Amino acid sequence: METLALFIVMAIFSLFVLLLYLTPTLMAVKHQHQYKAWIITLNLTIGWTLLGWLFVLIWSTRK
């Protein structure tokens, strides 16, 4: 039972981290950003760095 609980907690945490990582992509797609293909590409390639993720996040909020 303890193993199952740990697995569920880890799965929820992993989903949260993935959604946080993909926030710029989700925002660009939702708002039909003009450069959404570039935002998605950059989010997947340099989004793992804090500066890259912040750059893409800010870009996804601009028109």
How far is it from the N-terminal to the C-terminal residue, by CA?
A: 49 Å
Kindly name the structural category.
Answer: mainly alpha
How many β-strands, per DSSP? 0
Morphology call: elongated
Q: What share of residues are in beta strands? A: under 5%
Summarize the biggest pleated sheet. Answer: none
Separate helix tally: 4
* Helix percent band: over 70%
- Return the average pLDDT rounded to an integer: 96
Gyration radius, to the nearest Å? 15 Å
Query: Secondary-structure element order, as H and E?
Result: HHHH
**Unreliable stretches covering 5 or more consecutive residues:** none
Outline the structure in words.
The protein is mainly alpha-helical and 63 residues long. It contains 4 helices and no strands. The protein has helices at residues 2-21, 23-30, 36-46, 50-61. Helix 2 (23-30) packs antiparallel against helix 3 (36-46), helix 2 (23-30) runs parallel beside helix 4 and helix 3 runs antiparallel to helix 4. The radius of gyration is 15 Å and the shape is elongated. The termini are far apart.
List the helices and strands and how they pair.
Blueprint: H1 2-21, H2 23-30, H3 36-46, H4 50-61
Helix pairs in contact: 2-3, 2-4, 3-4
Features of the shown structure:
about 60 residues; mainly alpha; 4 helices; about 80% helix; elongated
Tell me briefly what this model is.
The chain is mainly alpha-helical. It has 4 helices and no strands.
